[in-house]
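--- STAGE predict ---
source: upstream dedup step, 1 unique chain passed
mode: sequence only
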Amino acid sequence: MKKALIAIDLQEDFINGVLGTPEAQKIIPDVIAKIKNYQNNNSDVIFTFDTHGEDYLNTQEGAKLPVRHCVKNTPGWELCEEIKANIDFDKCVKFEKNTFGSIDLGKYILENKYDEVELIGLCSGICVIANAVIIKSFCPEIKIKIDKNCTACATPETHETAYNAMKLLQFDIV
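--- STAGE serialize ---
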């Protein structure tokens, strides 16, 4: 069975930066352990990076969330340093995305014929769910798992709301 781990937006701005939360910080040890486990089993690990330009505040998203974040090549855009220091990041596949979900990620999963993907990362109620839906749209029969202990949202309440929605979408919550 061909499996991949998809790590969504584990960037400094979402963990320790302008949009960081205690909930995001809390999952980091479990995230590192999960990535190491996949790498030790020679499974693919794929990262997405929320990627904005200097004009972010002039975009539709910027108007609704007026917090400048994840601007490409800034410290906040980078992978969380604690994660990067503990995994083999050079062996990972990387996708930049300028919105919540990545069409290129969906195409990549389809082209590489994965049987199962597991999603971890931030934010469960926005980018994790968006990418899970895109993958399911490209690969209707793929098994999609989401690790509740390796994902977080802005608050515990929004995290729970996201999981209730993901259950309705028939994703496996582990």
